[in-house]
Design brief:
Chain lengths: 240, 288
Amino acid sequence: MSDLRIEGLTVTYGGAKALDNLSIEVKTGEFVALLGANGAGKTTTLRATSGLMRPAAGKVFFGDQDISKLPGHKRTAIGIGHVPEGRQIFPDHSVEENLQLGSFVRRKHRTETAQSVEDMYDLFPRLKERQKQAAGTLSGGEAQMLAIARALMSRPKILMLDEPSLGLAPQLVLELFKYLKRLHAEQGLTILLVEQQARLALQLAQRAYILERGAVKIEGNSKDLINDPRVAEAYLGKAS
Amino acid sequence: MSLQIWIDGLFAGSVFAIIALSMTIVYQPTRIMNFAQGEGFVLGAALGYQMLGVWKWPLIQSVVVLILAAILMGFIMERMVMLPVQLSGSKFAWIIATLAAAMIFQSAFNIKYVNVTFSYFDIIEKDIPIFGAKLSIQKLLVILLMLLIFVINDQFLKRTLWGRSIRAIAHNPDTSTILGIPTRPVIKLAFITGTIVIALVGFLATPVIIVAPAAGLFFTIQGFTAAIIGGVGSPKGAVIGGLIIGMLDSVVRSWLGGTWGLFSTFFALAVILVLKPNGLFGKRVEGR
Protein backbone atom coordinates (compact mmCIF):
# COMPACT_ATOMS: atom_id res chain seq x y z
CA MET A 1 0.00 0.00 0.00
CA SER A 2 1.20 3.47 -0.70
CA ASP A 3 -1.26 5.76 0.98
CA LEU A 4 0.08 9.17 1.85
CA ARG A 5 -1.00 10.35 5.27
CA ILE A 6 -0.07 13.70 6.75
CA GLU A 7 -0.91 14.09 10.41
CA GLY A 8 -0.88 17.33 12.36
CA LEU A 9 1.82 18.93 10.23
CA THR A 10 3.06 22.31 11.41
CA VAL A 11 5.70 24.24 9.49
CA THR A 12 6.95 27.63 10.57
CA TYR A 13 8.85 30.32 8.71
CA GLY A 14 10.68 32.35 11.32
CA GLY A 15 7.78 32.42 13.76
CA ALA A 16 4.93 32.60 11.24
CA LYS A 17 3.02 29.38 10.78
CA ALA A 18 2.82 28.33 7.14
CA LEU A 19 1.08 25.10 8.12
CA ASP A 20 -0.90 24.81 11.29
CA ASN A 21 -1.76 21.29 12.39
CA LEU A 22 -2.64 20.16 8.86
CA SER A 23 -3.90 16.65 8.24
CA ILE A 24 -4.68 15.20 4.84
CA GLU A 25 -4.74 11.75 3.33
CA VAL A 26 -4.37 10.45 -0.22
CA LYS A 27 -5.27 6.79 -0.73
CA THR A 28 -3.63 4.57 -3.32
CA GLY A 29 -5.09 5.21 -6.75
CA GLU A 30 -6.88 8.40 -5.77
CA PHE A 31 -6.77 11.73 -7.56
CA VAL A 32 -6.90 14.44 -4.92
CA ALA A 33 -6.78 18.20 -5.39
CA LEU A 34 -5.29 20.59 -2.88
CA LEU A 35 -6.82 24.01 -3.34
CA GLY A 36 -6.72 27.35 -1.66
CA ALA A 37 -5.75 30.98 -2.01
CA ASN A 38 -2.17 32.18 -2.33
CA GLY A 39 -0.28 31.66 0.89
CA ALA A 40 -2.72 29.05 2.18
CA GLY A 41 0.11 26.51 2.52
CA LYS A 42 -0.32 24.30 -0.54
CA THR A 43 3.29 24.50 -1.76
CA THR A 44 4.58 24.15 1.79
CA THR A 45 2.55 20.96 2.18
CA LEU A 46 4.22 19.44 -0.89
CA ARG A 47 7.69 20.65 0.10
CA ALA A 48 7.35 19.19 3.57
CA THR A 49 6.11 15.90 2.08
CA SER A 50 9.16 15.77 -0.22
CA GLY A 51 11.48 16.48 2.68
CA LEU A 52 12.59 19.90 1.46
CA MET A 53 11.36 21.49 4.67
CA ARG A 54 11.61 20.31 8.21
CA PRO A 55 8.28 20.46 9.99
CA ALA A 56 8.10 21.86 13.51
CA ALA A 57 5.56 19.20 14.42
CA GLY A 58 3.55 16.44 12.86
CA LYS A 59 4.22 13.27 10.94
CA VAL A 60 4.18 12.11 7.34
CA PHE A 61 3.39 8.48 6.59
CA PHE A 62 3.84 6.74 3.26
CA GLY A 63 2.26 3.32 3.28
CA ASP A 64 3.11 1.92 6.70
CA GLN A 65 6.34 3.85 6.95
CA ASP A 66 6.83 7.00 9.02
CA ILE A 67 8.94 9.10 6.65
CA SER A 68 9.02 12.26 8.77
CA LYS A 69 12.75 11.88 9.41
CA LEU A 70 13.73 10.49 6.01
CA PRO A 71 16.03 12.78 3.96
CA GLY A 72 14.45 14.24 0.82
CA HIS A 73 16.42 12.26 -1.74
CA LYS A 74 15.42 8.96 -0.14
CA ARG A 75 11.73 9.83 -0.33
CA THR A 76 12.02 9.82 -4.11
CA ALA A 77 13.43 6.33 -4.01
CA ILE A 78 10.42 4.97 -2.09
CA GLY A 79 7.97 6.39 -4.62
CA ILE A 80 7.18 10.04 -3.98
CA GLY A 81 7.36 12.11 -7.18
CA HIS A 82 7.18 15.89 -7.08
CA VAL A 83 6.76 18.33 -9.95
CA PRO A 84 7.81 21.57 -8.31
CA GLU A 85 6.28 24.99 -8.69
CA GLY A 86 7.57 26.78 -11.77
CA ARG A 87 8.65 23.49 -13.41
CA GLN A 88 12.34 23.89 -12.49
CA ILE A 89 13.73 21.97 -15.41
CA PHE A 90 17.50 22.18 -15.82
CA PRO A 91 17.94 24.67 -18.69
CA ASP A 92 21.55 23.80 -19.56
CA HIS A 93 20.91 20.06 -19.70
CA SER A 94 19.35 18.56 -22.80
CA VAL A 95 15.81 17.22 -22.70
CA GLU A 96 17.16 13.69 -22.59
CA GLU A 97 19.61 14.53 -19.79
CA ASN A 98 16.74 16.02 -17.79
CA LEU A 99 14.87 12.75 -18.17
CA GLN A 100 17.91 10.71 -17.20
CA LEU A 101 18.35 12.82 -14.07
CA GLY A 102 14.74 12.01 -13.27
CA SER A 103 15.64 8.33 -13.12
CA PHE A 104 18.60 8.97 -10.80
CA VAL A 105 17.18 6.66 -8.13
CA ARG A 106 16.89 3.85 -10.69
CA ARG A 107 20.30 4.44 -12.26
CA LYS A 108 21.44 0.86 -11.67
CA HIS A 109 18.74 -0.48 -14.00
CA ARG A 110 20.03 0.81 -17.31
CA THR A 111 17.84 -1.04 -19.78
CA GLU A 112 14.77 -0.22 -17.74
CA THR A 113 15.54 3.49 -17.60
CA ALA A 114 16.29 3.56 -21.32
CA GLN A 115 12.86 2.01 -21.84
CA SER A 116 11.33 4.63 -19.53
CA VAL A 117 12.81 7.41 -21.66
CA GLU A 118 11.12 5.86 -24.70
CA ASP A 119 7.85 5.56 -22.77
CA MET A 120 8.03 9.25 -21.96
CA TYR A 121 8.60 10.08 -25.63
CA ASP A 122 5.53 7.99 -26.48
CA LEU A 123 3.52 9.84 -23.88
CA PHE A 124 4.83 13.27 -24.84
CA PRO A 125 5.85 13.03 -28.52
CA ARG A 126 6.90 16.66 -28.61
CA LEU A 127 9.72 15.93 -26.19
CA LYS A 128 11.16 13.38 -28.59
CA GLU A 129 11.46 15.98 -31.31
CA ARG A 130 13.56 18.07 -28.95
CA GLN A 131 15.50 15.35 -27.15
CA LYS A 132 18.97 16.75 -27.90
CA GLN A 133 17.97 20.37 -27.40
CA ALA A 134 18.86 22.30 -24.25
CA ALA A 135 15.79 22.26 -22.03
CA GLY A 136 16.04 26.03 -21.61
CA THR A 137 14.89 26.45 -25.22
CA LEU A 138 11.53 24.71 -24.65
CA SER A 139 8.26 26.59 -24.63
CA GLY A 140 6.27 26.83 -21.41
CA GLY A 141 3.99 23.92 -22.28
CA GLU A 142 6.86 21.69 -23.39
CA ALA A 143 8.81 22.58 -20.26
CA GLN A 144 5.86 21.56 -18.09
CA MET A 145 5.59 18.26 -19.94
CA LEU A 146 9.29 17.70 -19.42
CA ALA A 147 8.93 18.47 -15.72
CA ILE A 148 6.15 15.90 -15.42
CA ALA A 149 7.98 13.32 -17.55
CA ARG A 150 11.11 13.85 -15.49
CA ALA A 151 9.20 13.20 -12.27
CA LEU A 152 7.62 10.07 -13.80
CA MET A 153 11.08 8.72 -14.64
CA SER A 154 11.58 7.73 -11.00
CA ARG A 155 8.44 5.53 -11.34
CA PRO A 156 6.65 7.24 -8.45
CA LYS A 157 3.71 5.64 -6.70
CA ILE A 158 2.31 9.08 -5.99
CA LEU A 159 2.85 12.16 -8.12
CA MET A 160 2.50 15.56 -6.50
CA LEU A 161 2.13 18.47 -8.89
CA ASP A 162 2.50 22.08 -7.84
CA GLU A 163 0.41 24.39 -10.04
CA PRO A 164 1.28 22.79 -13.37
CA SER A 165 -1.08 25.19 -15.17
CA LEU A 166 0.84 28.27 -14.06
CA GLY A 167 1.81 30.47 -16.99
CA LEU A 168 0.28 28.21 -19.63
CA ALA A 169 -2.25 29.22 -22.28
CA PRO A 170 -5.76 27.87 -21.54
CA GLN A 171 -5.56 25.46 -24.49
CA LEU A 172 -2.31 23.98 -23.12
CA VAL A 173 -3.78 23.70 -19.64
CA LEU A 174 -6.58 21.53 -21.02
CA GLU A 175 -4.09 19.40 -22.93
CA LEU A 176 -1.96 19.02 -19.83
CA PHE A 177 -4.89 18.01 -17.67
CA LYS A 178 -5.87 15.44 -20.28
CA TYR A 179 -2.43 13.87 -19.79
CA LEU A 180 -2.91 13.86 -16.03
CA LYS A 181 -6.28 12.18 -16.42
CA ARG A 182 -4.72 9.54 -18.66
CA LEU A 183 -1.90 8.89 -16.22
CA HIS A 184 -4.42 8.41 -13.47
CA ALA A 185 -6.91 6.33 -15.43
CA GLU A 186 -4.56 4.19 -17.54
CA GLN A 187 -1.57 3.76 -15.26
CA GLY A 188 -3.35 3.95 -11.94
CA LEU A 189 -1.04 6.67 -10.71
CA THR A 190 -1.98 8.30 -7.42
CA ILE A 191 -2.06 12.07 -7.88
CA LEU A 192 -2.04 14.99 -5.49
CA LEU A 193 -2.63 18.15 -7.48
CA VAL A 194 -2.10 21.67 -6.18
CA GLU A 195 -3.99 24.14 -8.35
CA GLN A 196 -5.11 27.73 -8.55
CA GLN A 197 -7.69 26.91 -11.19
CA ALA A 198 -10.12 25.34 -8.72
CA ARG A 199 -12.95 24.58 -11.15
CA LEU A 200 -10.70 22.68 -13.54
CA ALA A 201 -9.03 20.79 -10.74
CA LEU A 202 -12.36 19.80 -9.24
CA GLN A 203 -13.48 18.40 -12.60
CA LEU A 204 -10.45 16.13 -12.64
CA ALA A 205 -10.03 15.12 -9.04
CA GLN A 206 -12.20 12.74 -7.06
CA ARG A 207 -11.73 14.52 -3.77
CA ALA A 208 -10.36 17.88 -2.68
CA TYR A 209 -9.07 19.71 0.34
CA ILE A 210 -9.44 23.48 0.53
CA LEU A 211 -6.76 25.05 2.66
CA GLU A 212 -6.92 28.32 4.47
CA ARG A 213 -4.12 29.75 6.57
CA GLY A 214 -2.24 26.49 6.74
CA ALA A 215 -5.13 24.26 7.80
CA VAL A 216 -7.89 22.31 6.06
CA LYS A 217 -10.97 24.50 5.83
CA ILE A 218 -13.20 22.29 3.70
CA GLU A 219 -12.88 18.77 2.44
CA GLY A 220 -15.13 16.55 0.40
CA ASN A 221 -15.91 14.95 -2.92
CA SER A 222 -15.28 17.11 -5.94
CA LYS A 223 -18.86 16.68 -7.14
CA ASP A 224 -20.16 18.24 -3.95
CA LEU A 225 -17.56 20.97 -3.78
CA ILE A 226 -17.82 22.22 -7.32
CA ASN A 227 -20.99 24.17 -6.57
CA ASP A 228 -20.23 24.93 -2.94
CA PRO A 229 -20.20 28.70 -2.35
CA ARG A 230 -17.69 28.27 0.48
CA VAL A 231 -15.06 27.17 -2.05
CA ALA A 232 -15.20 30.44 -3.94
CA GLU A 233 -15.12 32.25 -0.63
CA ALA A 234 -11.98 30.44 0.49
CA TYR A 235 -10.35 31.31 -2.80
CA LEU A 236 -11.03 34.97 -2.45
CA GLY A 237 -9.37 34.68 0.93
CA LYS A 238 -12.37 36.03 2.76
CA ALA A 239 -11.51 35.65 6.41
CA SER A 240 -14.18 34.37 8.70
CA MET B 1 63.67 34.84 -24.88
CA SER B 2 65.00 31.60 -23.57
CA LEU B 3 63.02 28.40 -23.60
CA GLN B 4 63.62 27.96 -19.88
CA ILE B 5 61.31 30.85 -19.09
CA TRP B 6 58.47 29.18 -20.98
CA ILE B 7 59.09 25.83 -19.30
CA ASP B 8 59.04 27.51 -15.89
CA GLY B 9 55.88 29.33 -16.95
CA LEU B 10 54.28 26.03 -17.97
CA PHE B 11 55.11 24.59 -14.56
CA ALA B 12 53.81 27.62 -12.64
CA GLY B 13 50.75 27.68 -14.91
CA SER B 14 50.07 24.03 -14.14
CA VAL B 15 50.24 24.75 -10.41
CA PHE B 16 47.76 27.61 -10.77
CA ALA B 17 45.60 25.50 -13.09
CA ILE B 18 45.32 22.69 -10.51
CA ILE B 19 44.43 25.23 -7.80
CA ALA B 20 41.78 26.68 -10.11
CA LEU B 21 40.55 23.15 -10.94
CA SER B 22 40.21 22.30 -7.28
CA MET B 23 38.24 25.51 -6.71
CA THR B 24 36.11 24.60 -9.73
CA ILE B 25 35.38 21.15 -8.27
CA VAL B 26 33.97 22.82 -5.15
CA TYR B 27 32.21 25.50 -7.17
CA GLN B 28 30.41 23.12 -9.50
CA PRO B 29 27.77 21.82 -7.08
CA THR B 30 27.80 24.74 -4.63
CA ARG B 31 28.38 27.93 -6.66
CA ILE B 32 30.76 28.83 -3.86
CA MET B 33 34.28 30.14 -4.47
CA ASN B 34 36.11 28.69 -1.53
CA PHE B 35 38.67 31.22 -0.31
CA ALA B 36 40.02 28.58 2.07
CA GLN B 37 40.97 26.30 -0.83
CA GLY B 38 44.63 27.42 -0.81
CA GLU B 39 45.01 26.08 2.72
CA GLY B 40 44.86 22.62 1.18
CA PHE B 41 47.96 23.57 -0.81
CA VAL B 42 49.74 24.50 2.42
CA LEU B 43 48.57 21.20 3.94
CA GLY B 44 50.32 19.35 1.12
CA ALA B 45 53.44 21.47 1.57
CA ALA B 46 53.48 21.10 5.37
CA LEU B 47 52.93 17.34 5.33
CA GLY B 48 55.51 16.93 2.55
CA TYR B 49 58.00 18.85 4.64
CA GLN B 50 57.14 16.93 7.79
CA MET B 51 57.02 13.44 6.29
CA LEU B 52 59.64 13.59 3.54
CA GLY B 53 61.90 16.34 4.92
CA VAL B 54 61.86 15.77 8.68
CA TRP B 55 60.77 12.19 9.27
CA LYS B 56 62.26 10.80 6.03
CA TRP B 57 59.25 8.58 5.42
CA PRO B 58 59.01 6.51 2.25
CA LEU B 59 57.09 8.14 -0.58
CA ILE B 60 54.10 5.79 -0.83
CA GLN B 61 53.42 5.97 2.89
CA SER B 62 53.63 9.77 2.78
CA VAL B 63 51.20 10.02 -0.12
CA VAL B 64 48.70 7.74 1.62
CA VAL B 65 48.86 9.79 4.83
CA LEU B 66 48.62 12.98 2.80
CA ILE B 67 45.43 11.82 1.09
CA LEU B 68 43.90 10.75 4.40
CA ALA B 69 44.75 14.14 5.90
CA ALA B 70 43.27 15.90 2.86
CA ILE B 71 40.05 13.89 3.22
CA LEU B 72 39.84 14.99 6.84
CA MET B 73 40.55 18.61 5.95
CA GLY B 74 37.94 18.57 3.15
CA PHE B 75 35.41 17.11 5.56
CA ILE B 76 36.10 19.82 8.17
CA MET B 77 36.16 22.53 5.51
CA GLU B 78 32.75 21.49 4.18
CA ARG B 79 31.26 21.84 7.66
CA MET B 80 33.01 25.18 8.25
CA VAL B 81 31.66 26.60 5.00
CA MET B 82 28.30 24.89 4.43
CA LEU B 83 26.97 24.96 7.98
CA PRO B 84 26.95 28.79 8.20
CA VAL B 85 25.58 28.95 4.65
CA GLN B 86 22.74 26.52 5.42
CA LEU B 87 21.93 28.03 8.81
CA SER B 88 22.04 31.68 7.82
CA GLY B 89 20.12 31.36 4.57
CA SER B 90 22.04 34.39 3.32
CA LYS B 91 23.21 34.50 -0.26
CA PHE B 92 26.55 35.93 0.79
CA ALA B 93 27.33 33.91 3.91
CA TRP B 94 29.86 31.86 1.92
CA ILE B 95 32.18 34.85 1.51
CA ILE B 96 32.74 35.34 5.21
CA ALA B 97 32.52 31.60 5.97
CA THR B 98 35.26 30.66 3.50
CA LEU B 99 37.48 33.56 4.58
CA ALA B 100 37.03 32.57 8.21
CA ALA B 101 37.96 28.98 7.37
CA ALA B 102 41.07 30.29 5.57
CA MET B 103 42.09 32.34 8.62
CA ILE B 104 41.56 29.42 10.99
CA PHE B 105 43.64 27.00 8.92
CA GLN B 106 46.32 29.64 8.37
CA SER B 107 46.57 30.27 12.11
CA ALA B 108 46.85 26.55 12.75
CA PHE B 109 49.76 26.27 10.28
CA ASN B 110 51.41 29.37 11.79
CA ILE B 111 51.17 27.98 15.31
CA LYS B 112 52.63 24.62 14.35
CA TYR B 113 55.40 25.99 12.11
CA VAL B 114 57.05 29.08 13.57
CA ASN B 115 59.83 30.49 11.40
CA VAL B 116 59.71 27.56 9.00
CA THR B 117 59.39 27.62 5.26
CA PHE B 118 58.47 24.32 3.71
CA SER B 119 61.01 22.83 1.35
CA TYR B 120 62.39 19.37 0.71
CA PHE B 121 64.19 17.50 -2.00
CA ASP B 122 62.63 16.45 -5.28
CA ILE B 123 61.14 12.97 -5.27
CA ILE B 124 63.28 12.03 -8.27
CA GLU B 125 66.20 14.38 -8.67
CA LYS B 126 66.64 14.31 -12.39
CA ASP B 127 66.38 16.84 -15.20
CA ILE B 128 65.23 16.23 -18.73
CA PRO B 129 67.21 18.38 -21.18
CA ILE B 130 65.12 20.13 -23.84
CA PHE B 131 67.11 22.15 -26.40
CA GLY B 132 69.47 23.60 -23.85
CA ALA B 133 66.75 24.21 -21.28
CA LYS B 134 65.79 21.67 -18.66
CA LEU B 135 62.63 20.29 -17.18
CA SER B 136 62.96 18.55 -13.83
CA ILE B 137 60.97 15.36 -13.22
CA GLN B 138 59.27 17.14 -10.33
CA LYS B 139 57.94 19.87 -12.62
CA LEU B 140 56.91 17.27 -15.20
CA LEU B 141 54.93 15.42 -12.52
CA VAL B 142 53.00 18.59 -11.72
CA ILE B 143 52.23 19.20 -15.39
CA LEU B 144 51.06 15.59 -15.83
CA LEU B 145 48.96 15.79 -12.67
CA MET B 146 47.26 18.88 -14.07
CA LEU B 147 46.40 17.12 -17.33
CA LEU B 148 45.18 14.02 -15.51
CA ILE B 149 42.90 15.95 -13.17
CA PHE B 150 41.53 17.99 -16.04
CA VAL B 151 40.69 14.97 -18.20
CA ILE B 152 39.10 13.03 -15.33
CA ASN B 153 37.04 16.01 -14.17
CA ASP B 154 35.92 16.97 -17.66
CA GLN B 155 34.90 13.45 -18.67
CA PHE B 156 33.22 12.83 -15.34
CA LEU B 157 31.05 15.92 -15.71
CA LYS B 158 30.14 15.29 -19.32
CA ARG B 159 29.78 11.55 -19.50
CA THR B 160 28.46 10.25 -16.20
CA LEU B 161 25.07 10.60 -14.57
CA TRP B 162 26.81 11.68 -11.36
CA GLY B 163 28.57 14.45 -13.29
CA ARG B 164 25.29 15.61 -14.76
CA SER B 165 23.74 15.54 -11.32
CA ILE B 166 26.51 17.84 -10.06
CA ARG B 167 25.59 20.39 -12.71
CA ALA B 168 21.95 19.93 -11.73
CA ILE B 169 22.70 20.59 -8.06
CA ALA B 170 24.48 23.80 -9.05
CA HIS B 171 21.40 24.91 -10.87
CA ASN B 172 18.83 23.99 -8.26
CA PRO B 173 19.59 21.96 -5.11
CA ASP B 174 15.93 21.56 -4.11
CA THR B 175 14.85 20.21 -7.47
CA SER B 176 17.84 17.86 -7.47
CA THR B 177 16.77 16.55 -4.08
CA ILE B 178 13.22 15.79 -5.23
CA LEU B 179 14.66 13.82 -8.14
CA GLY B 180 16.47 11.68 -5.58
CA ILE B 181 19.95 13.14 -5.97
CA PRO B 182 21.73 13.09 -2.59
CA THR B 183 22.62 16.78 -2.69
CA ARG B 184 24.46 17.14 0.61
CA PRO B 185 26.65 14.04 0.27
CA VAL B 186 27.63 15.18 -3.24
CA ILE B 187 28.67 18.58 -1.87
CA LYS B 188 30.70 16.88 0.89
CA LEU B 189 32.41 14.76 -1.72
CA ALA B 190 33.21 17.84 -3.82
CA PHE B 191 34.96 19.52 -0.90
CA ILE B 192 36.90 16.34 -0.15
CA THR B 193 37.92 15.76 -3.78
CA GLY B 194 38.90 19.41 -4.21
CA THR B 195 41.08 19.28 -1.10
CA ILE B 196 42.80 16.05 -2.21
CA VAL B 197 43.58 17.60 -5.59
CA ILE B 198 45.06 20.80 -4.18
CA ALA B 199 46.96 18.99 -1.42
CA LEU B 200 48.59 16.78 -4.06
CA VAL B 201 49.85 19.76 -6.05
CA GLY B 202 51.08 21.42 -2.85
CA PHE B 203 52.95 18.24 -2.04
CA LEU B 204 54.50 17.97 -5.51
CA ALA B 205 55.24 21.65 -6.18
CA THR B 206 56.78 22.64 -2.85
CA PRO B 207 60.29 21.30 -3.60
CA VAL B 208 60.38 23.67 -6.57
CA ILE B 209 58.73 26.81 -5.23
CA ILE B 210 59.19 26.79 -1.41
CA VAL B 211 56.02 27.54 0.53
CA ALA B 212 55.45 29.58 3.69
CA PRO B 213 52.86 28.40 6.25
CA ALA B 214 50.83 31.57 5.68
CA ALA B 215 50.89 31.34 1.89
CA GLY B 216 47.43 29.74 1.56
CA LEU B 217 45.59 32.91 0.65
CA PHE B 218 48.22 33.78 -1.96
CA PHE B 219 47.58 30.48 -3.74
CA THR B 220 43.83 30.94 -3.35
CA ILE B 221 44.06 34.32 -5.06
CA GLN B 222 46.19 32.91 -7.88
CA GLY B 223 43.72 30.07 -8.42
CA PHE B 224 40.79 32.48 -8.17
CA THR B 225 42.40 34.79 -10.74
CA ALA B 226 43.00 31.84 -13.07
CA ALA B 227 39.40 30.65 -12.65
CA ILE B 228 37.98 34.09 -13.40
CA ILE B 229 40.17 34.58 -16.47
CA GLY B 230 39.19 31.16 -17.81
CA GLY B 231 35.55 31.40 -16.79
CA VAL B 232 34.29 30.38 -13.36
CA GLY B 233 32.99 26.81 -13.18
CA SER B 234 34.59 25.61 -16.41
CA PRO B 235 37.35 22.99 -16.08
CA LYS B 236 38.76 24.02 -19.45
CA GLY B 237 38.72 27.65 -18.33
CA ALA B 238 40.56 26.76 -15.11
CA VAL B 239 43.37 25.12 -17.09
CA ILE B 240 43.68 27.85 -19.73
CA GLY B 241 43.39 30.60 -17.11
CA GLY B 242 46.05 28.94 -14.95
CA LEU B 243 48.42 28.51 -17.88
CA ILE B 244 47.91 32.13 -18.97
CA ILE B 245 48.81 33.62 -15.61
CA GLY B 246 51.66 31.17 -15.07
CA MET B 247 53.26 31.96 -18.44
CA LEU B 248 52.61 35.68 -18.12
CA ASP B 249 54.11 35.80 -14.64
CA SER B 250 57.19 33.90 -15.75
CA VAL B 251 57.78 35.96 -18.89
CA VAL B 252 57.17 39.35 -17.32
CA ARG B 253 59.24 38.42 -14.28
CA SER B 254 62.32 37.66 -16.39
CA TRP B 255 61.77 40.68 -18.57
CA LEU B 256 60.94 43.46 -16.09
CA GLY B 257 61.86 41.91 -12.73
CA GLY B 258 60.09 39.98 -9.97
CA THR B 259 57.72 42.65 -8.70
CA TRP B 260 56.10 43.02 -12.11
CA GLY B 261 55.06 39.37 -12.29
CA LEU B 262 52.10 39.64 -9.94
CA PHE B 263 51.21 43.02 -11.39
CA SER B 264 50.93 41.50 -14.85
CA THR B 265 48.56 38.73 -13.75
CA PHE B 266 46.19 41.17 -12.09
CA PHE B 267 46.44 43.45 -15.09
CA ALA B 268 45.44 40.50 -17.27
CA LEU B 269 42.53 39.87 -14.90
CA ALA B 270 41.37 43.49 -15.24
CA VAL B 271 41.58 43.31 -19.04
CA ILE B 272 39.58 40.08 -19.16
CA LEU B 273 36.94 41.44 -16.80
CA VAL B 274 36.42 44.40 -19.10
CA LEU B 275 36.48 42.51 -22.41
CA LYS B 276 34.85 39.22 -21.38
CA PRO B 277 33.24 39.58 -17.96
CA ASN B 278 32.35 35.88 -17.79
CA GLY B 279 35.88 34.75 -18.60
CA LEU B 280 37.18 33.04 -21.72
CA PHE B 281 35.08 29.87 -21.39
CA GLY B 282 32.53 30.96 -18.82
CA LYS B 283 28.79 30.94 -19.30
CA ARG B 284 26.63 33.69 -18.01
CA VAL B 285 25.50 32.63 -14.56
CA GLU B 286 22.02 33.69 -13.71
CA GLY B 287 21.64 35.21 -10.29
CA ARG B 288 20.16 32.95 -7.67
